[in-house]
Design goal:
alpha/beta, eight-stranded parallel beta sheet, disordered N terminus
Length: about 525
């Protein structure tokens, strides 16, 4: 469908334009997603008379050179997103940037203007004040500025129908948006091992995450299927375990991905599956002898489990984790993956305590120096803590979004509701019928309220599927990811959901991120008839 036309169809019936002065009817709605924590608005539209010369002005007097470059890069990115139509026309007419002194501008104040890789405790709060006299954005940090710029990009409207200038305007002023997230860690889990995902496709995923204010990309880089990054410590693992010499991330690739993510306010937490699902690792002949047992999987590679009674298992695990944490600077690291029944462990080894517990205890001891400053995460389906006497472990619970009674407030957890997995719907790896596809309305129904309870560090949206690859990942993600991301960002009542999700679809497509349609074109033309007057 013509997405430019869709933009007109969704926006213009909603904002009730008057051709003369853009005075707004009080029944109009803002098409923001995620919906902010607090919105105070008026009814007057403020035009942007010189979009060719619009600027973002950082008011901080002193900013180091690296931070200045980062601000300039994200400013350029959003200027292009917001004023792309005007930029083409202005460059054709030769008027682009000729009147910078008289340009409209958004003045930005950042309490801490230092740019760096985001940390778990970085502030994302911002306040946006827009009226006929000035446009102002205040934030605590660079990441807060990025979140505010995303909101600003969503309140600048373009009137496609009018032939008069200005075509750009901001509705509902005076407009004050005071915003911060309800859930601190809002992640997206993707698997780059079942099908390799190119670096450029990951960039698009990160662009989409910024658009819906997600802040953690949790990426699986090694499993039974393949080993998807370059190990210089164990090069034969990459040589034997990668699908091909082009289907793994080099150290240079990883540095680019981490930097690209940081500019968008996104952390990257890597995971390599240990000590389960290690078939790709054990394709290296040097480590075949570390196998404890194997379990068969239907139409999939065997699940190979490493032996926790062998010294070599821990030399391998510590070596891999040391290299991985040198490539990814995030303070969180996954040290154990127990998402399937590992019964063959205990049958084979017959140790005094469970093999999973044996592995974790020894790994914590062997890696104490290497992972000294790291928060260790175990991804599991277990219903209670594996190490009951160690409160330092973070448990990433794969299952429902409810935290069971076995988990106390002292147990730090990350939640993933696998019932809301985005990767289902196109069949399984054999081309047979798989789990059903959840519509965007169904995904929006997963409230993730447990993610706001004490002891929960965050929530990771689940994207696991046999057919998720470069060609299909956008289809699986958008706009459904945005509807769940909104529940994590904003706990308040959210108005006009259908219109806002429709606007997200258009916005993503205009940004080069392919979104599923939210409805048919007739319903986009007749929103109230399809979904009701409050849709």
């Amino acid at each position: 469908m013509n997405y430019l036309k869709a933009f007109t169809l969704i926006i213009l019936p909603t904002i009730l334009l008057c051709a003369s002065d853009h005075t707004m009817d009080s029944s109009q709605v803002l098409l923001l997603l995620p919906w902010p924590r607090s919105v105070e608005n008026g009814t007057i539209s403020v035009p942007i008379p010189r979009p060719c010369d619009f600027t973002f002005e950082l008011a901080n007097a002193t900013v180091d050179e690296a931070s200045r470059k980062a601000f300039n890069a994200i400013f350029e990115h959003y200027i292009d997103l917001i004023f792309r139509k005007a930029k083409v026309i202005c460059e054709e007419k030769g008027v682009y940037g000729n009147n910078a002194g008289n340009a409209s501008k958004l003045v930005i104040y950042a309490s801490n203007a230092t740019f760096g890789v985001p940390t778990p405790d970085v502030s994302e709060s911002y306040t946006l004040r827009l009226d006929s006299n000035s446009f102002e954005l205040r934030a605590d940090t660079f990441v807060g500025v990025v979140r505010g710029l995303e909101t600003f990009s969503q309140v600048v409207y373009y009137d496609e129908l009018t032939t008069a200038e200005p075509k750009y305007f901001i509705p509902q002023t005076p407009l004050v948006i005071d915003d911060s997230p309800a859930v601190k860690q809002r992640g997206l889990f993707i698997d780059a091992t079942v099908n390799f995902l190119s670096k450029d496709r990951l960039f698009k995923v990160l662009d989409g995450m910024m658009s819906v204010k997600l802040n953690v990309l949790h990426i699986l880089l090694a499993s039974d299927h393949s080993f998807a990054y370059e190990s210089r410590v164990f090069p034969n693992i990459t040589f034997n375990g990668a699908y091909s010499e082009e289907e793994f991330y080099t150290h240079e690739d990883i540095a680019e991905i981490v930097a690209y993510a940081a500019l968008r306010g996104v952390r990257i937490i890597p995971e390599i599956s240990l000590p389960t699902h290690t078939r790709a690792i054990t394709l290296d002949p040097n480590f075949t002898n570390l196998t404890a047992c194997k379990t068969s999987q239907d139409a999939a590679p065997e699940n190979v489990l490493l032996d926790p009674t062998k010294n070599g298992t821990f030399a391998l695990a510590v070596g891999l984790l040391k290299e991985l944490t040198s490539l990814f600077p995030d303070p969180y690291v996954y040290i154990g993956t127990f998402v399937d029944d590992s019964y063959c462990y205990d049958q084979k080894l017959q140790t005094n305590e469970s093999a999973k517990v044996l592995y974790l205890r020894r790994l914590l001891n062997e890696s104490a120096e290497v992972l000294r400053d790291k928060t260790k995460i175990v991804r599991t389906r277990d219903q209670s803590p594996l190490l009951k006497d160690d409160d330092s472990i973070v448990y990433h619970l794969m299952g429902s979004e409810n935290v069971g009674s076995s988990w106390s407030a002292k147990n730090k957890v990350i939640l993933t509701n696998t019932n809301a997995n985005l990767g289902s719907g196109l069949g399984d790896r054999k081309g047979e019928i798989g789990p059903p596809l959840h519509s965007w309305r169904a995904i929006a129904g997963f409230s993730a309220t447990q993610a706001r309870r004490e002891g929960v560090l965050g929530y990771h949206i689940d994207l696991e599927g046999d057919l998720v690859d470069d060609a299909t990942i956008d289809f699986y993600l958008w706009p459904r990811t945005g509807t769940l991301a909104e529940n994590l960002w904003s706990p308040v009542a959210k108005p006009y959901h259908y219109r806002r999700v429709g606007a997200l679809e258009v916005r993503l497509n205009e940004r080069g991120i392919k979104s599923q349609p939210t409805s048919c074109e007739w319903c986009q033309r007749h929103i109230s008839d399809c979904f009701g007057p409050e849709a």
